[in-house]
Amino acid sequence: MPAMLDDSDDIHPLFAGAPSTTEFKKLRKRIVRNTREAIDHYGMIAKGSQDPDAPRPRWLVCLSGGKDSYTLLAVLYELKWRGLLPVDLLACNLDQGQPGFPATVLPEFLERMGVPHRIEYQDTYSIVVDKVPQGRTFCALCSRLRRGNLYRVAREEGCSAVVLGHHRDDILETFFMNLFHGGRLATMPPKLVNEEGDLFVYRPLAHVAEADCEKFVNAMGYPIIPCDLCGSQDGLQRQQVKQILDGWENNSPGRRQVMFRALMNARPSHLLDPKLFDFAGLSIDAPAIDENLQEVPKLR
To answer: Most CB contacts within 10 A, which of 193, 204, 235, 271?
Structure first.
């Protein structure tokens, strides 16, 4: 396996000036390891993609300009450089017409980094402001409109997957939001197929901690674009859940990782959903059911 990018004369611009401290190198290796683990664990690389004669899949890597999407872009390029990610990458930023959005930051950054990209302008902000009642958060409708446009761009660019920068903490927060407010056990899956059935959606940072993304991007000095331009972030349910998780983490360091492991270790027979486990068919005389063999229905 090749050494880190900055240990070679062939340095990708994304990593130019990377700190040489032991602490940063450990952080970077951890992010790479966790991302590769998620890609392998959830089957984001199709079998046969390693064949040099096979057509290379193309991924649309979605960039918001926040710490998570910068981390996503950098780690995917590092994995490509190491020969561990046999895909072509196209970075994409969707400019949604938010007032004050610094429209030149990402195009200039991507040009400087030599990263193939597409900047798409769609004024979804005006639609959201018109449709959402005063005092309500914009996030849900804004997200749906953004996702629809990204799917369209992916199709136009011949991409097989839309790749998002959600990390471990996003997944945990979504789980608790669904638990507290939605009455269901569900979260952001690391891999899914869109409703139209023609695109994958991947979250390669599923195992990466938010704190690691923040440390990485701050150390690299990437130009961060804030996610509060629309003014609708205060008081969100997600912020409330984040505060709860922060409190648990402060009282018991490592609690987030323990809870995340629980999402990877579900026991349908010890929950209450008869769609996931055949309680009615369970009897004293019947042989024990191997939960690993029981088919679980597909959920959207």
So the answer is: 204
The Cα–Cα gap between 278 and 15 comes to 52
Q: Where are the alpha helices (DSSP H) in 139-193?
A: 139-156, 168-177
Q: At what angle do helices 168-177 and 237-251 cross, to 10 degrees?
A: 110
Burial of 195 (0-12, 13-18, 19+ CB in 10 A): exposed
Digit-coded pLDDT (tens) for 131-169 = 777 766 667 777 888 899 999 999 999 999 999 999 999
Element (H, E) at 238: helix 237-251
Supply φ then ψ for residue 24, to 5 degrees: -70, -40
Sheet of 161-163: strand order equals: 117-121, 88-95, 58-62, 161-163, 200-202, 191-193
State pLDDT tens for residues 179-210. 998 999 999 999 999 999 999 999 999 999 99
Residue reference for tokens 């407010």? 181
Give tens-digit pLDDT for 106-118: 999 999 999 999 9
Instruction: Please give the structure tokens belonging to residue 187.
Output: 């979260």
Q: What is the DSSP letter of 128?
A: H
Nearest CA to 269 among 261, 278, 260?
Answer: 278
Distance CA 295, CA 6 (A): 46
d(CA 45, CA 191): 11
| Other Cβ atoms closer than 10 A to 253 | 9
- Angle, CA 105 vertex, CA 164 and CA 167 arms, to 5°: 20
